[in-house]
Amino acid sequence: MRRDMVETRDLSHFVRHLDNGVARIDLAVDGITCAACMAVIEGGLAALPDVTRARVNLTNRRVAVEWNDGRLDPTRLIERLSELGFRAFPFDPGRAEAKEAQEAGLLWRCLGVAAFAAMNIMLLSVSVWSGNVTDMSPEQRDFFHWLSALIALPAAAYAGRPFFRSAVSGVLARRLNMDVPITVGVLLALGMSVAETLHHASHAYFDSAMMLLAFLLLGRALDQSMRQRTREVAGNLAALKAETAAKFVSSNEICEVPVASIRPGDLVLVRPGERLSVDGIVLEGRSDIDQSLVTGETVPVLTEPGANVYAGTLNGYGTLRVRVGAAAGTLIDDVTRLLDQAVEARSRYVKLADRAARLYAPLVHLTALATLVGWLICGASWHDALITAIAVLIITCPCALGLAIPAVQVVASGALFRAHVLVNAGDAIERLAEIDTVLFDKTGTLTLPAPELVNAAEIAPGRLALAARLALSSGHPLAAAIARAAHATQPLTDAVEEPGQGVHTRLEGITIKLGSPAFCGAEREAEALAAGDPEASRIVFAYGAERHVLMVRQRLRPDALEVVARLRAAGLRMEILSGDRDAAVERVARALGVDQWRAGMTPAEKIARIAELKGEGRRVLMVGDGLNDAPSLATANVSMSPVTAADISQAAADAVFLGDRLAPVESAIAIARVAQRLMRQNLAFAVIYNLIAVPIAVLGLATPLIAAVAMSGSSILVTANALRAKHAREAS
Amino acid sequence: MEVLIYLVPMALTLGLLGLAAFLWSLKTGQYEDLEGAAWRAIMDDDEAAGAATQDRGVPPAA
Predict the structure, then answer these.
(1) ipTM of the complex as predicted
(2) Mutate: best of B30, B33, B45, partner A, most A CBs <10 A
(3) Which of A234, A395, A480, A538 has the most neighbouring CB atoms within 10 Å?
């Protein structure tokens, strides 16, 4: 556009200024593979002047750098890392991640306190139990009980907060969750034990209450850690996308800034071959834009001043000047409105644990009541009847039930993580296990998002290599595909790009050209090939009088065919819903053997189709990536997105999968099904445990010793069973 | 049984010390990078000292 443009890079959005004159930046680093990298990075960064601290976190592949605020430009850090062979991306830890970390910290602290209390009280309790059958004096026993109370009451008040809070908010919202019976059980156990201690009784249940809290907190802390780890990886992936925009800071000066710091009304420059990172209106320039990530349409759209452009689309040959801001009445508005409706209407899925709690809590509370009444009728004293009833509540307190589901979720999330699936929502595993229909978007989901050269084998290797070198001089995305196909690295000298047409140069006296068929004078050859493959883009390479037609288009994911076949074998019904044209969708559907497909669908039509399927009683998994898929991802029972998807879609999806392969979708379903089975088994264990323990408690035989053995035994059993989800993929 | 006067406070103190150590380790972020910590322990001092020598103003050994 203008030749005298000055460009700088601004990272100030990511730099945090600490109180003592020290600046800090967090970088997500690609390429850290081993401990040696850690030493290289830390040594290399520390050698820069002013850097006071560089610390690699090998677990989450991040580097924290601190330096004396002032002279050092943080871009120097990134340059230094790239000299060392690592790609680094500035990184905004974000509020969601900070909140998760805070939550995890609280759970671990509570667990520490509960475990300390449980162990020390158990020490005292074992003394009392052995003293009760030997020669302990009542004074000593009371002393030990008071000591236990002294430890248990403050510890429970501290460590029980996560449960108490959730129970109270559940009750206030008139929803019964698992934390309600847990809270009731713990409070009753503590209250009764204090009352019994006051009456110099021989039994107190302080140890049961604390052990229950410790076991349950362990399950939750592990669950939280797993979620935190997933979020960190997702955060790194977001940073690795490095979404920046070239913002005009004056009329001819641009500055590369992170997208997060762009405001509506800003002017940005979009260069040829760049992916747009903002929505806006074109003020100046013409180009062809590949909108496949937004609409699913694979044919580029001609863009002129006044046209709307969307984040996530790929710019073609032209340079554009764009005013940031979503225009009214555009696709974005439609999608946002539909998405809001879908999120609102999303039927509140009741988690398995909560469903169990709804059955379980009234049942045990009624059993306790029946025990109280029964003993009173049989002529027991109020005191004895009440103690027995409370003992029933304590022994049925859902220790195994509380661990049954989180334990499986932790192990299953780990297995999913290894299968390259990151789960956003906690209950996604349960919903994923129940699906019977899979809906795929086409563009970017069944196909890979970047275009590829498909007929490389038909072109002489020498000519292809030359074409690829020439392609390096062009900014057009299709040229980039050709350069990639031949792994070209050396551009040709003196290559000239004619915007919108192609590149040409002279080599040893021969004119060579790469560009549109018209540019190279080969329309007839290109037309002949177009008949066989209408939606491929055709690029012609002219070498003197020779003409080679190169076909470039989006290819199916490498394992799409096998995955679809295996999903069909597993009894799942499949359908393709695409925004692309009939012919393009039909070709893919036929290649994959999917007989149900719909093309040219708007976001609203996709939602309608999902609603129709749900109306037939089907449980739908939607796999999609486009902006136009976001509302349907939120509408489906459960949804997945590839990591290349538009940001809104990734946020709306329940899980994100990584890599070029489609296999993670299949693995996710398989792992979720195994996890679901183990959760059900665990719940069955909990029921069997109660069938044995409850009669003992109802008869008034549940001593604290029996409660302790039963509780720890059942917890170990369900945890051990949950560990079987670890090898879910291999087993399925 | 008078020995309990010493033993019980001692047991509790030891337990509290353990708890305090755990809480301290949480607060100072000892669990933030378990993988890295495992490797740092066996890393050569020359490499790992890069950051430290810089602090003291001594150029790192070539």
Answers:
(1) 0.76
(2) B33
(3) A395
